[in-house]
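A common beginner's mistake is to predict each chain separately and then try to dock the pieces by hand. The better habit, illustrated here, is to supply every component at once so that their relative placement is modeled jointly.
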Amino acid sequence: MEQHLDIHIERREAKKTKPAQDQLGFGIHFTDHMFMMDYTTEIGWHHARIVPYQPLVMDPAAKVFHYGQTVFEGLKAYKTEDRRILLFRPQKNMQRLNRSNERLSIPLINESFALDALKQLISIDQEWIPSGSGTSLYIRPFVIATQPELIASPSSHFQFIIIMSPVGPYYAEGLNPVKIFVESTSVRAVIGGMGEAKTAANYAASLMAQEDAKHNGYAQVLWLDGVHHKYIEEVGSMNVFFKIKGIVYTPALKGSILDGITRDSILQLLQHWNIPVVSGDISIQKVYEASREGTLEEAFGTGTAAVISPIGELHWHGQNLVIQNGQTGELSNKLYQTLTGIQNGSDPDLFHWMTEVNMR
Amino acid sequence: MEQHLDIHIERREAKKTKPAQDQLGFGIHFTDHMFMMDYTTEIGWHHARIVPYQPLVMDPAAKVFHYGQTVFEGLKAYKTEDRRILLFRPQKNMQRLNRSNERLSIPLINESFALDALKQLISIDQEWIPSGSGTSLYIRPFVIATQPELIASPSSHFQFIIIMSPVGPYYAEGLNPVKIFVESTSVRAVIGGMGEAKTAANYAASLMAQEDAKHNGYAQVLWLDGVHHKYIEEVGSMNVFFKIKGIVYTPALKGSILDGITRDSILQLLQHWNIPVVSGDISIQKVYEASREGTLEEAFGTGTAAVISPIGELHWHGQNLVIQNGQTGELSNKLYQTLTGIQNGSDPDLFHWMTEVNMR
Ligand SMILES: Cc1ncc(COP(=O)(O)O)c(C=O)c1O
Ligand SMILES: Cc1ncc(COP(=O)(O)O)c(C=O)c1O
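With all components supplied together, the output reads:
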């Protein structure tokens, strides 16, 4: 099997000490092994290997440091009660990785090979998947440009790497609604930019506003569009939904926001439940008006890390808006329970979203 | 002196072989040493050192790879005929580095310390400064976020590094006018984004359009604004100037373009020469109209790498526009001769732009 994939495996001799299940945090601890694969223009992708988790040795002129040619993905593996290992829609992550690669002029990766490699890596490090409530194994595939050359053009050399981190719930408080600052100056991404790619640049652009928001007591920033500063885009690193008068609204995918896999799954669930849903333009004005009219029922962010993150309060141009009295709404809660139930294997996999990892 | 700066110096034992003066290329060869300094939230910037040029050893979870928290600078050192070493307005680069740091939530660096460190590094590697016509030592200071944590928030650890590369002329062809593709879909940066910071994200955003342009026979892309797709911003990694009916126009600094040091120097030269100059909005439409009316006299890009890069032809929405019959204009040429003359020490330093590096 390992021969078939042509993945060279070098196992760690002494395993690392695992963190306590209630001390996981998010993205701090890493498993014993990592996957790596190299690219050169002449050979293409080659030298696939699973090796002990280790530092990268990189020329200081490597293009990733200077010109940001890099993409990444984020997904999770779950351990079920009956000790199976499940991945949530991993094919979608590999497809999106390649869409990001295209935008960043990075050579495409064979998606099914990457998924097989990931499964093998998980299998080797399976003891690292936590089983406590709200825990999972967070998986971070990423590509970096390694050619040492100070010219802003696509690299001739890349590395594709997968690292994994056992994680606790993203928000320590659990499903508690958070306070959000609506950012009207700083812009995350604009149409024509890279907003629909999962690439470092978009996160770099968000750091300053997010720090400002945090200093003022807000958990995240709600981003408005870069052209009109009017239409809602995303909240922090999540897609965003609003329920107004029984209808659920979410920003359409027009090129400036990420095509979230949680977002897509929620759209499917809502349709399945016959809840009307609109993917289109939503102005921040409209949300404030709905609140004034008493028709703003719920708001929540969605993403792999937190799954569902209810919004309890918005702050825009000096105006506070409290949603659902700052409590978690019924739909937010139902979506959270349904999604996490499917993900951790306790609920039936109605939509065939889960992929099982075979233990070896 | 070395004590005073508290820079620990570790010299390379065996020096590398230097490339031939006519084989330098740009940003490919690096000198024997590099400068490094570390930052932690607890200690601040510390452990300044000059060490042999060497690979960085970095955790694969380092934030720079995932969230693009990084900034850089680019400047040049020149060897004069009488073998002095000159830097062109290096204080401006250190100031801009700190403005970029602010936008990227990176801790500020002591500008005069950084400049002293650079001078020491240059002095140690002075044999690497080429002296052929059009050659120089390209200097790349940069900061990278090194904390290993998969959360998109500012890093607690950074490294500030300076590497140096002996370079030939940026364009092999010399001061020959280039063909430029006017990009109307893809956007480099938008107001509210990071366009005025020198940070990886802006270059990542430009790769795809630039590759497309290159495949179609164009040297660079001319960027339009991200809101209207109408106003001229920059050309490739350069600021841009147009001479129309005796008046020189360049886009104003409104937040989406880099405050180029070559641009600023040209504005000073033009004023000194009593040539009228306007820093403001220039629509691509206006340039095409001027061409039709026969009043478009010259166009050129400006930056540290190429100094002046005349534009011989534009292509916008299927319309070609030839400037100055594809020849280098008088002003472009005069600016190039004046700037390079000051930089390599053959002309008087009228504006006190040059900083001499003491040899030790
Ligand atoms: C900017 C951004 N938007 C939205 C999302 C949500 O995407 P997904 O549901 O695929 O995790 C993410 C990733 O978590 C993100 O980084
Ligand atoms: C995007 C961009 N614009 C303009 C410039 C020109 O700036 P400077 O004249 O300081 O080199 C540069 C750097 O060379 C750049 O990267």
